Every structure is written in C-alpha cells, then in structure tokens.
TrEMBL record:
Pfam families cross-referenced by the UniProt entry: DUF6463
Keyword Membrane carried by entry: yes
Transmembrane segments: 12-32, 64-88, 100-132
Keywords on record: Membrane, Transmembrane, Transmembrane helix
Transmembrane listed as a keyword: yes
Protein name: DUF6463 family protein
Organism (species): Streptosporangium jomthongense
C-alpha cells in the first residue's frame, strides 16, 4: 500500500516535469532550434544585453524559454520522480522532509501562478509524507 502511494507520487512528479518540458519545447521550438543551429554554446545570455529593443526582447525570450525548460524545475522533478519510483520498488522509505518540501514548494508555486497544475505537486508531496509516516519498509542492504 505504501509503495503504491510512492508510485503515485512519482508518477505525478514525472508527469508534471515531462509535461512542462513538452509544453516548453512545443511553444519555444523556433528559439530552441535556433540555439541548436548556433551551436548551443552561450546561446542564452546570462547577464543583461545591450542593444535595441528587438535584441532585448529576443534575449528575454531566450531566458524565459531556458528557465522555463531545461534550466527550471522540470528536469529535477522528473529525476526526483524516477528516484522515488526506484526506491518504492525496493521498499525504501522516502524521507517525509522530501514530501514536505515538494508539497510546500507546489502550494507556493500554485498560489503565485494561478491557474496552474502546480497544486498536483502538493498531492505528490502529501503522498510521500503519508508513505514515510506509515513506513514503506526497512531500507534494503545489497552488501554495498
């Protein structure tokens, strides 16, 4: 039962992260393909860009796509979801603090960005907390 909660939590996190990356790729494909054509190196300016308004708008668009996609929360959320899935399969309890962190972060994000699927992350966080409180099982030892 507790492993099932962790599997649901991980599925939510993986879906949210992958969904977010998909939306960013679909909406920003023209700029992303420009980055690839430019060779990716320094395609997104880190600091302020001087120039005319059109250059400033392009730089802002690049930064937005980067921070909404590969530089944002989506990749770590997918990785955390995969780790949670893996640990649940081994019967290892994910610490409640991870669940609380995901839940609080998701609620704050959902309040700031309405409407948003951010609140689904709070469900994932709550499932992790519940599984931790019930205890999925003792961590397994593989002789390492």
């Amino acid at each position: 039962m507790n492993s099932r909660m962790l599997r649901w939590a991980s599925g939510i996190m993986i879906t949210l992260g992958a969904g977010h990356l998909s939306v960013v790729v679909l909406t920003g494909w023209a700029r992303i393909s420009d980055w690839v054509r430019q060779g990716l190196w320094a395609a997104v300016p880190f600091l302020g860009t001087s120039g005319d308004t059109a250059q400033l708008v392009e730089a802002l668009r690049d930064k937005t796509i980067f921070w909404a996609g590969p530089g944002g929360f989506a990749v770590p959320l997918v990785l955390l979801g995969c780790l949670t899935w893996h640990l649940a399969g081994r019967g290892v309890t994910v610490p409640a603090g991870v669940g609380w962190g995901v839940a609080v972060w998701s609620v704050v994000g959902g309040v700031v960005l309405v409407p948003s699927p951010f609140f689904l992350g709070a469900v994932a966080g709550a499932l992790i907390v519940l599984a931790a409180r019930r205890g999925v099982g003792a961590p397994t030892s593989h002789g390492s």
